[in-house]
Inverse folding.
């Protein structure tokens, strides 16, 4: 399904895009970041908090990180302070890139088993499928944030994968 090269590429893309979005969001006021903009999780801040929570939850399964508490409903307020959210995102992105540099094809081909709070049951799926979902989930919510930032008057940068700098 996917290979380690793809995982590393998408981890770098994730880091690049988060830097882009957080830079644009940093130019907004706290009130603008917290305003309900009609997205699934409401605000820019809440969506970014959910995304960091989700990434941390998946990485607890992929690489043994500490699992976040609170469930999906609590994910929107998992990190309530902007500076802490920025720091947590940057740290997570470094760790994701590190993990992506170590993941093997054998690991991606193996099954991953966990208890899904969202489904309320144990699940077992190919890890490659779960990793593809992980990156798709990031892209989905970053797209929402990009739209909210644009509506708020911020100017997030390009999102095209082929434009990503080599040093990202």
């Amino acid at each position: 399904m996917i290979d380690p090269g793809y995982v590393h590429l998408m981890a770098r893309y994730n880091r690049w895009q988060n830097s882009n979005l957080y830079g644009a969001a940093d130019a907004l006021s706290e009130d603008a970041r917290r305003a309900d903009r009609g997205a699934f999780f409401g605000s820019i801040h809440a969506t970014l908090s959910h995304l960091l929570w989700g990434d941390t939850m998946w990485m607890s399964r992929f690489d043994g990180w500490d699992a976040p508490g609170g469930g999906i409903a609590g994910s929107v307020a998992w990190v309530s302070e902007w500076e802490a959210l920025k720091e947590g995102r940057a740290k997570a992105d470094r760790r994701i890139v590190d993990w992506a540099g170590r993941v093997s094809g054998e690991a991606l081909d193996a099954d991953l088993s966990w208890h899904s709070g969202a489904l309320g049951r144990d699940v077992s799926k190919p890890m490659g499928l779960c990793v593809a979902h992980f990156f798709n989930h990031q892209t989905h919510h970053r797209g929402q944030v990009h739209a909210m930032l644009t509506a708020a008057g911020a100017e997030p940068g390009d999102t095209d994968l082929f434009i990503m700098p080599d040093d990202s």
In short: The helical segments are 4-26, 30-34, 44-63, 71-74, 82-102, 105-109, 127-151. Residues 4-159 form a domain with the Four Helix Bundle (Hemerythrin (Met), subunit A) fold (CATH 1.20.120.450). The two ends are 24 Å apart (CA to CA). The chain has a mean pLDDT of 96.
